[in-house]
């Protein structure tokens, strides 16, 4: 038996990691089925193969499709004498050994200009109970179908065919609870209820869906705690933008196949469990804007595949990062720890993660200097260290500053400065104020000071010598600009002649 989707598509996970912040565009996973669950003998048929002599659609299923289409405002379908042989985008059929075709997939909603599923009449559409008459159904997909006619998710969906693998009810305006009956769909691989108006708690019965690959309940108003998780093949778990409370269950570490975890924008408290370190395939973890109040677990450095760690907006209990905090996280590209109440110095282990592209450590109480090995982060394109208590010279030269430009934020660090000969200022956008000043050249045995401090900054007014140095520096910069202008002018004259 050939599979419904190409054999290599065991799971298609569309995960956009190059733009992980906000990271979080929702997506749908579609999976294939290679198990022999029915007498169906082939994949979805083209018009040519369906026109073979004797081919026909199961009459009971055809009437069911007519009812379903009428319920979504697609009355035109009743004029089609054979819904499988004259099929449209959004319906898939497969034959059995007697050449009788059965409906295996129904999809509704304008997902994109290139995906011409039948649209729904949003003012009167509903899910017809005739769906129960499709015993071979594997995929059911409704997108933005009931926005102006909000209704609960029908409990009878929990009695759908045991062949059902994908249930997507996305942005439909569904109201009320998630039916506990959905836990009966034990062959389900994808459950997507993103962006409805669902409330109440997450049914514990969903824990019976042991074959789930993707669970997306994001952007609802779900309350209560996260039940004990045990999904051995789950790849995507998205519970973001709800009202969930309590702690992150330690059983999360038993979901060894997880690639993406997104619990952001809830009310979760406590700590990140140590068991998280066993998720060796994890690529994205977003726990931002919760109430997590404990330091990072030491096991987090075991996440060798992790590319994005986002914890912004958690109090994290006045944590101090150890110097080895991020050792082992060689794949990390995005680190967002803004406003997490961090204290102490920036760990040097960060400077050894050469794949880093984005670092946000702003809005903390970090002190000490920026590690000098930060200059080796050649892939770094965005750095936010503003609103801390950092001191000393910035270790970046002209090229690195030029590459980051306005994405380099260092302001509101009263003791931070740059060396005159580092090339730092040359890399700045001429209209951009970095918010830090020039370092004084220290006398032997004296401490380094920052030239631009004033009494209102908590420092002292610069001396005449300091002012003279600043004037000389500005004069040298102005001279370089004149030289560059002269060079450009002479080139233009040469071209014109």
TrEMBL record:
Record-linked SUPFAM superfamilies: L domain-like (SSF52058)
Keywords associated with the record: Cell membrane, Glycoprotein, Leucine-rich repeat, Membrane, Receptor, Repeat, Signal, Transmembrane, Transmembrane helix
Annotated signal sequence range: 1-26
Domain Disease resistance R13L4/SHOC-2-like LRR: 212-383
Localization per Swiss-Prot or TrEMBL: Cell membrane
Membrane topology: Single-pass type I membrane protein
Gene3D superfamilies named in the record: Ribonuclease Inhibitor (3.80.10.10)
Keyword Membrane: yes
Cellular component per GO, a single term: plasma membrane
A single GO BP: response to other organism
Keyword set includes Nucleus: no
Protein name, UniProt field: Disease resistance R13L4/SHOC-2-like LRR domain-containing protein
Gene source species: Salix dunnii
């Amino acid at each position: 038996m050939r599979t419904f989707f190409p054999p290599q598509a065991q799971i298609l996970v569309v995960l956009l990691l190059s733009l992980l912040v906000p990271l979080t565009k929702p997506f749908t996973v579609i999976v294939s089925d290679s198990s022999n669950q029915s007498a169906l003998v082939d994949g979805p048929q083209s018009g040519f193969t369906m026109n073979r002599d004797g081919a026909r659609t199961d009459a009971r299923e055809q009437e069911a499709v007519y009812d379903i289409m009428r319920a979504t405002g697609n009355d035109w379908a009743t004029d089609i004498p054979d819904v499988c042989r004259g099929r449209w985008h959004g319906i898939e059929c497969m034959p059995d050994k007697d050449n009788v075709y059965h409906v295996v997939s129904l999809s509704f909603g304008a997902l994109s200009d290139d995906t011409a599923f039948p649209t729904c009449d949003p003012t009167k559409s509903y899910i017809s109970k005739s769906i129960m008459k499709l015993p071979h159904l594997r995929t059911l997909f409704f997108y933005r179908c009931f926005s102006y006619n909000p209704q609960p998710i029908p409990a009878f969906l929990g009695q759908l065919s045991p062949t059902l693998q994908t249930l997507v009810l996305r942005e439909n305006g569904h109201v009320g609870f998630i039916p506990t009956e959905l836990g009966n769909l034990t062959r389900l691989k994808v459950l997507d209820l993103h962006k409805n108006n669902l409330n109440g708690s997450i049914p514990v019965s969903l824990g019976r869906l042991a074959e789930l690959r993707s669970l997306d309940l994001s952007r609802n108003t779900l309350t209560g705690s996260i039940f004990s998780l045990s999904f051995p093949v789950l790849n995507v778990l998205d519970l973001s933008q709800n009202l969930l409370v309590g702690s992150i269950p330690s059983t999360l570490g038993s979901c060894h196949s997880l690639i993406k975890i997104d619990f952001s924008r809830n009310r979760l408290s406590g700590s990140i469990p140590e068991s998280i370190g066993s998720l060796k395939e994890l690529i994205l973890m977003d726990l931002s804007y919760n109430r997590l109040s404990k330091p990072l677990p030491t096991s987090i450095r075991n996440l060798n595949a992790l590319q994005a760690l986002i914890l912004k907006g958690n109090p994290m209990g006045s944590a101090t990062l150890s110097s080895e905090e991020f050792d082992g996280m060689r794949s990390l590209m995005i680190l967002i720890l803004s406003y997490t109440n961090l204290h102490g110095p920036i760990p040097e282990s960060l400077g050894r993660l050469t794949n880093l592209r984005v670092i946000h450590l702003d809005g903390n109480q970090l002190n000490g200097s920026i590690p000098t090995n930060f200059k080796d982060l050649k892939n770094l394109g965005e750095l936010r260290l503003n609103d801390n208590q950092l001191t000393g010279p910035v270790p970046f030269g002209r090229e690195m500053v030029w590459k980051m430009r306005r994405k380099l934020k260092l302001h509101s660090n009263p003791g931070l400065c740059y060396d005159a000969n580092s090339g730092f200022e040359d890399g700045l956008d001429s209209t951009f104020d970095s918010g830090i000043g020039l370092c004084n050249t220290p006398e032997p045995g004296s401490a380094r000071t920052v030239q631009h401090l004033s009494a209102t900054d908590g420092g002292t007014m610069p001396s005449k010598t300091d002012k003279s140095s600043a004037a000389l520096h500005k004069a040298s910069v102005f001279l370089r600009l004149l030289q560059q202008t002269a060079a450009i002018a002479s080139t233009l004259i040469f071209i014109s002649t």
